[in-house]
């Protein structure tokens, strides 16, 4: 989540846990929208106990730069807070919320601490202040090639990156696939708006240049 990532849509996987035998491990597969400061994806919690824990939830939430200035290119100077909630079916589902998580990450978005709680077998379970790290085996935390010529600022649609779509396609994660399909459809439907905005911008540039 360095300065280079502040416009874009990209996937990231976080592994949350101590790594100790018998301890629970949370895996978050997320798609981050750095313009809207929103996050969607899936959570999976496993634990080698009897019976084994196998918890899953569709998750969504937000992230903010909680402390310090906006991060510089190297990610220093900020702490990123990601707040998530989840259930079965996503934010538009009528199912109860069964998962909450808060992640505090260094400005580069690669390491930090997390606390979460989940509802399983009729009981809420809490895990607090455990290490979190980005999985380097997924993809680098850098945007991939832009699909088409569209881009996004505060006035237009989010750019979709090839690596994001490739990741969703091979992950087998239905929630990710649906999310990416929605973004792609929004981009295709916004082409006329983008063209009109670009024409207006070019006209304004020409007007200002003529005054110089």
UniProtKB/TrEMBL annotation:
Domain of life: Bacteria
InterPro entries per the UniProt record, alphabetical: DUF1842, DUF1843
Record domain DUF1842: where: 7-124
Pfam families: DUF1842, DUF1843
Domain DUF1843: 159-210
Protein name: DUF1842 domain-containing protein
UniProt organism field: Burkholderia thailandensis
């Amino acid at each position: 989540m360095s300065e280079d990532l502040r416009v874009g849509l990209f996937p990231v996987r976080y592994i949350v846990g101590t790594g100790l035998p018998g301890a629970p491990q949370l895996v978050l597969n997320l798609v981050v929208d750095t313009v809207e400061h929103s996050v969607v994806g899936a959570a999976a919690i496993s634990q080698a106990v009897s019976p084994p824990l196998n918890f899953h939830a569709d998750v969504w939430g937000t992230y903010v730069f909680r402390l310090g200035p906006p991060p510089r290119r190297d990610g220093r100077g900020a702490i990123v807070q990601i707040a998530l909630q989840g259930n079965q079916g996503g934010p538009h589902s009528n199912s109860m919320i069964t998962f909450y998580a808060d992640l505090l990450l260094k400005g580069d978005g690669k390491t930090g601490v997390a606390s979460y709680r989940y509802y399983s077998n009729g009981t809420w379970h809490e895990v607090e202040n455990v290490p979190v790290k980005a999985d380097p085996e997924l993809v680098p935390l850098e945007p991939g090639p832009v699909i088409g010529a569209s881009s996004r600022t505060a006035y237009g649609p989010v750019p979709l990156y090839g690596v994001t779509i490739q990741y969703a396609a091979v992950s087998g994660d239905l929630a990710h696939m649906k999310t990416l399909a929605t973004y792609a459809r929004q981009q295709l439907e916004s082409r006329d708006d983008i063209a009109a905005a670009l024409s207006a911008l070019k006209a304004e540039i020409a007007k200002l240049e003529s005054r110089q």
